[in-house]
Structure formats: C-alpha cells, structure tokens
C-alpha cells in the first residue's frame, strides 16, 4: 500500500535522496524546505500527482503552522514523518575559549525545537502505525561523547534526543513509533570536504537514505516505542 510521507529539509542531500526513494515506491510525498531548490521544484513539476512542495522554515512557528495547514487541505493522515532539516556551523569546530555562545540559541531553535514544531503541527495526522524519523546524530549521544569541541551542535542534538524521548512517551498509547537516527558521516555539504575525501569512513547520501527508509518501513515492528541508532542499525547509547 502506498504511504503518505512528510519530509522536512529535502531540498538537497539526504532529504532529497529520501524523497527520491519514496517517489520510486509510488508514495504520496509532502516535501518541505526553507528554500525550494531548483532540483526539488523540477522533480515536483515532473511528478505533480505524487509530490507537493511547500516552503517551510522549521525555525519559525508561523512557517511550520502554514505548511501543516497546507498539508491538511490535501490529506488527513501521515504514515511516515522525516524530520531531516537542521543546521551545522563549521566555525563551531573550536575549543570552548573560541566558541561563540551567541549562536547557541539559533542552533537549538532549529535542531532541537524544529522537529517538535513539525510534530505539533501534524499531531492530528498521526495514527497507530505512524513512524516519526528524526535525523539526530552520534554527536547527540552523551554516553558516547568523546569530542572536545562543537558545543552548540552536540548540545542541540542531545536536546533533540530528549525531546524525542518525551514525545515517544506521550505517543505510546497511540502506537506511534519514534526513531532517532545518526545518518553517518555523509558526503554532502554538511559533511564537508573531508568526508568526500575519506570515502572509507563516510557514506553517500544515497546509501544513507536507502538504509533510513528501510528502517522507517520496519519501525512499526520495533519492540520499543523509541529507538536511537545509526543508519546501519547499530544501537547508540543515549
């Protein structure tokens, strides 16, 4: 059965690859990004019966509410929600004494609060068997943390994980599964130039998307209401 899919952050990279996989499956996709890229618009124009594109800034409550309102004009249930939109700043790869604290709130607003904004806006669309996929990071794991920099990014992803855990508690009775995923060190703009060079340690967005979509489809059968893992299905410590 074809699924109804909502994706934030699918203008390029991982989100665009997730969109392409669901397109190939014949699913109905509601694609969001803060800026509609030419690639996304071209794909949507070629498949108007499957893809609806809406500009959505997950850092803005007003923008998210407008995108969700547009969704409810065309559908009333969501099978798969992918919270992929997020930000990373390479200038944060510095020790504490060089860290700009004034950027922290923007990082939190998008990476931690953004996914919850989307979930709140789509609350009435969740049904038993719905799956929420949050693209988190191993950087958000307190138990596995060995980094000595990137304070804002790591802390924002840890906050995202906590938000997802509370969300899963609230949604447990509705039989909605939540999965927080580390997509791998991807060969994308966010992954940086080094990821493109170190192909033995990095992963293409196409491969990561393949793994993530497979997890999303399997998630209704997961024993726990929330799971935190790598795209390879290796569990991550909270």
From TrEMBL:
Organism: Yeguia hominis
Taxonomic lineage of the native organism: Bacteria, Bacillati, Bacillota, Clostridia, Eubacteriales
UniProt xrefs under InterPro entries: NAD(P)-bd_dom_sf, SDR_enzymes, SDR_fam
Family affiliation: Belongs to the short-chain dehydrogenases/reductases (SDR) family.
Protein name: SDR family NAD(P)-dependent oxidoreductase
Molecular-function annotations in GO: oxidoreductase activity, acting on the CH-OH group of donors, NAD or NADP as acceptor
Coiled-coil residues: none
